[in-house]
Amino acid sequence: MSSISIKKRRKQEMFHVKHIKQFDAVVCGAGHAGVEAALILNRFKIPTALITIDPLAIGRMSCNPAIGGLAKGQIVKEIDVLGGIMGKATDYSALQYKILNKSKGKSVWSPRAQVDKREYENYINKAIVNAKHITVVQGEVVNIETERGIVSSAIMRDGQTIGCSTLILTCGTFLNGLIHIGEKQTPAGRYDEKPSTGLSEQLEKFKMKLGRLKTGTPPRLDGSTINYENLEKQDADTEPEYFSFLTKKTYNKQIACCVTYTNKKVHEIMKNASGNSWPISVYLLYLALKKECHQIINIVLVFLQAW
Ligand SMILES: Cc1cc2nc3c(=O)[nH]c(=O)nc-3n(C[C@H](O)[C@H](O)[C@H](O)COP(=O)(O)OP(=O)(O)OC[C@H]3O[C@@H](n4cnc5c(N)ncnc54)[C@H](O)[C@@H]3O)c2cc1C
């Protein structure tokens, strides 16, 4: 089914939902986690409302179009064994399979695939559209109602009440989300997408502990401005390790990634940067710790001293 007909069908479903107000289960959020939850409920034939702020962003990957990597690769495989969709969607859209850390011991090898993020999204969308027991509802859950201590409904910002006996919250990076770009801070779930506000206060009332996690994303480069000749090529593995144990073939032509490194000139630029960009330095520190890149750690320390 094309993405246009998916959008059409979703519009029709959303029209119906105005009249249907009671479901057995409500899943709030249609990112990776919400989609898995809804599809499992569907398998058990449980009438489920999948509520999401933007139905056209169901299954959207937030950042780098990569699935897996250290620790995460294993989780994707576990989700697959439990009957989840993530591994299958990854294989369907994979452009480069690579086992990372091959130069180290086997215990730290980890599978990663670079994927076509639009194809990934389409695969997930098709599964949701074809799921008989899932109704997609557009809107933002802002409140949770309980009766005698048990969840009874999700309240939406537009005033709709969706009754349910089970409510699964998978709000991801949207819950009170805040984006830092340089010194500017913008409430957002992802770039150009509204955050979810209101629910946090509600969860606090239920005496749940709230905290904030941080992720970082690199700037995007226009491919036409890159001289690939100067970059180190990283080919895909010749014998791909699929993410789903059900996958029997490679769906797409595999392509190479290209790697480059910082040099003294880049370090100088970083050292001489205007020094008032705290979030960027936090991002660098995060990268440095993640990659154990000591040169960058030194630069971060220089930055931090300057403040
Ligand atoms: C900028 C950025 C870069 C990232 N980079 C990477 C990376 O490189 N690699 C990596 O592995 N991970 C990365 N992550 C993290 C990754 O995106 C998340 O861990 C993952 O998306 C979490 O999945 P999720 O299903 O929990 O939530 P999300 O994917 O965040 O989805 C949440 C969904 O819930 C909906 N929603 C939220 N609140 C409500 C509400 N109240 N009512 C209705 N709908 C609601 C949203 O619309 C959205 O559809 C990045 C995240 C961001 C923001």
Structure description:
It contains 9 helices and 14 strands. It is of the alpha/beta class and 307 residues long. The protein has 2 domains: 153 residues, 3-Layer(bba) Sandwich (FAD/NAD(P)-binding domain), CATH 3.50.50.60; 81 residues, no CATH class. The strands form 5 sheets. A 4-stranded parallel beta sheet has the order 6-2-1-10. Strands 3-5-4 form a 3-stranded antiparallel beta sheet. α1 crosses α5 and α8 packs antiparallel against α9. About 2% of the residues have low confidence. The structure holds flavin-adenine dinucleotide. Flavin-adenine dinucleotide (FAD) binds next to α2 and β2.
Summarize the structure.
With 307 residues, the chain is α/β, with parallel strands linked by helices. The chain has helices at residues 3-17, 32-43, 72-81, 86-93, 117-130, 199-205, 264-271, 278-291, 294-306; strands spanning 25-28, 48-52, 66-68, 94-100, 110-115, 134-138, 141-147, 150-156, 161-163, 166-169, 178-181, 184-187, 232-234, 257-259.
List keywords for this structure.
307 residues; alpha/beta; FAD/NAD(P)-binding domain; 2 domains; three-stranded antiparallel sheet; binds flavin-adenine dinucleotide
Topology:
Elements: H1 3-17, E1 25-28, H2 32-43, E2 48-52, E3 66-68, H3 72-81, H4 86-93, E4 94-100, E5 110-115, H5 117-130, E6 134-138, E7 141-147, E8 150-156, E9 161-163, E10 166-169, E11 178-181, E12 184-187, H6 199-205, E13 232-234, E14 257-259, H7 264-271, H8 278-291, H9 294-306
Parallel strand pairs: 1-2, 1-10, 2-6
Antiparallel strand pairs: 3-5, 4-5, 7-8, 8-9, 11-12, 13-14
Flavin-adenine dinucleotide (FAD) binds at residues 28-34, 51-54, 57, 62-64, 72, 140-141, 170-175, 189-190, 196, 199, 215, 217.
